Amino acid sequence: MTTPATLSVWRNARLATLAGGSPWGWVAHGAMLVDGDTIVWAGPEAQLAEQLSLTIRATGRAIDAEHDLGGALVTPGLVDCHTHLVYGGQRAREFELRLHGASYEDIARAGGGIRSTVAATRTASDAALFDSALARARTLLAQGVTTVEIKSGYGLSAEHEARCLRAARRIGQVLPLAVKTTCLSAHALPPEFDGRADDYIDAVCAWLPALHAEGLVDAVDAFCDHIAFSPAQTRRVFQAARRLGLPVKLHAEQLSDQGGAALAAEFGALSCDHLEHLGASGVGAMRASGTVAVLLPGAYYFLRETKLPPIALLREQGLPMAIATDHNPGSSPTLSPLLMLNMACTLFRLTPEEALRGMTVNGALALGLVDRGRLAAGQRADFVVWGLEHPNELAYWVGQQPSARVVCAGREVTA
Ligand code: NIG
Ligand code: FE
C-alpha cells in the first residue's frame, strides 16, 4: 500500500522565488502549497485561500499540515553542481608547500597533487570512502544543499572508479538530498600509465560502458589542461560518452586556454567549469550550445589565482553562470556553500542575486535539471527556511552559518 502524498501549506514567509522577472522573484508576504514532493503553488499569501480552495476542490483532499514560518526567508534549495566528495586522505602538506612558493602545477608534475589523493583513495576501504563522503554530504545538506553533484576521479582504474561512484550513489540513497554522479576518470594520469596517456584514455573509454551499465554515471567529465589531458584526448572521452548517450561537462581553461570550452560546446556540454582562462571564442561557442559557465571561487581563492574568469563577457553574452563549492582536497577544501556565494561576489564581482541564482536555478541547469532551483508550480519541493531577513545576506555573512530548515522533496530534513 502506498502512503498518500501529504498536502501542506507553508505560510507567513518572505519568498525569494527566483521565478518571474522581478529582482529575486521577491514575494514579501508569501506562501506555498506543496503536494508530496512538488510545489503546486507559490505566491502572495493574499491569494492562498483561493488557491487552497481550488486545490481542495480539484483533488478532494484536505490539508495535512500547515507551517507558519513567522515571516522567515525562504529560498529554493541550494544546488552544488560541482564537487569531488569521494576521496581518501587530505593535502594540507601541499598547502604548506604552496605557501612556500611551490605551484599547483609543480606539485602535480612531481607526482603529488591529484596523484597523492589517488594513492590514498585506492588504499581506503569501501566503508572509509563512503563514511567520509557521507559526512561531507551531511555537512552540505545541513547548510541548505538539496542537490549535489559528485564526481569520481581519484580512483583512476575500473575497480577504484567504480568504488567511488558506488559510494556517491549510496549517499543519494541514505540521505534525502538528490545526488547526480559524474564520471571523471580522465582527471589525471595514474602512475601505472606513465608516459602512456593515450593508452589510459583507451582504458577509460573501455571501462565507461560497464560503469554506465551499473547505473553509476549521470554525466562524463574530463580535465583538459596542460597538466592533465589534451583536447584530442578529451574528444575521445566525449565520443565514448556520446556513444552511451551520456551528457558531458569539462574542467576547462582552469590553468591555461586549451580551447576546451569550444570542444565541450561542440558536444553540447551541460557545463564548462573553472574558466579563468576562457577567451571570447570559447564564450561564443558555449553561448551557441547553451552550456552553463560554472564558476568556482573556492579553487580560485585557494590556489591564489590572479586571472579572473571573463565575468563581464559572460554576463554581456547572457550565459547562465553557476557557482559551486568544487569541494576537493587539493584546490578547494571547503564545505561552505554560503562562503562560495560570498567569494563569488567579492572575488568575481557577481551580484548577491547572481550568486544565489548560480547556486540554485543555474546550478540545476549545469546538471541538466529544470525541475528545481525556483519556487514555482511544478518544481520539486526543495527549499530552505533561513534565519535571515533578506536573501542578499546569504552572500554577506562571512564564515557564519545562519539557521537553516531544509526541505527536500517536500520533507523537512531532521538533523
Ligand atoms: O576541480 N582541476 C582539477 N580538478 C580539481 C582539483 C583536483 C585536486 O587538486 O585534487 C578541481 O580543482
Ligand atoms: Fe573540480
Q: Superfamily at the CATH H level of the largest domain?
A: Metal-dependent hydrolases
Helicity level, as a percent range? 25-40%
Q: How many beta strands in the DSSP annotation?
A: 15
Order of helices and strands: EEEHEEHHHHEHEHEHEHEHEHHEHHHEEE
Written overview of the protein:
The structure is a single chain. With 415 residues, the chain is of the alpha/beta class. The protein has two domains: 7-76 and 374-413, Urease, subunit C, domain 1 (Roll), CATH 2.30.40.10; 78-365, TIM Barrel, CATH 3.20.20.140. The chain has 15 helices and 15 strands. It has helices at residues 48-59, 92-99, 104-109, 114-123, 126-142, 158-174, 197-213, 231-243, 260-266, 280-289, 297-302, 311-316, 337-346, 352-358, 361-365; strands at 7-16, 26-35, 38-44, 65-76, 78-80, 145-151, 178-186, 219-224, 249-252, 271-274, 292-295, 321-323, 383-386, 404-408, 411-412. The strands form two sheets. An eight-stranded parallel β-sheet has the order 5-6-7-8-9-10-11-12. A seven-stranded mixed β-sheet has the order 3-2-1-4-13-14-15, covered by helices on one side. α8 (231-243) links the parallel β8 and β9 (249-252). α5 (126-142) crosses α6 and α7 runs parallel beside α8. The radius of gyration is 21 Å and the shape is globular. It starts with 6 loop residues before the first strand and ends with a strand. The mean pLDDT is 97. The protein binds N-(iminomethyl)-L-glutamic acid and fe (iii) ion (FE).
Provide the descriptors you would attach to this structure in a database record.
415 residues; alpha/beta; Urease, subunit C, domain 1; TIM Barrel; 8-stranded parallel beta sheet; 7-stranded mixed beta sheet; 15 strands; 22% strand; globular; binds N-(iminomethyl)-L-glutamic acid; binds fe (iii) ion
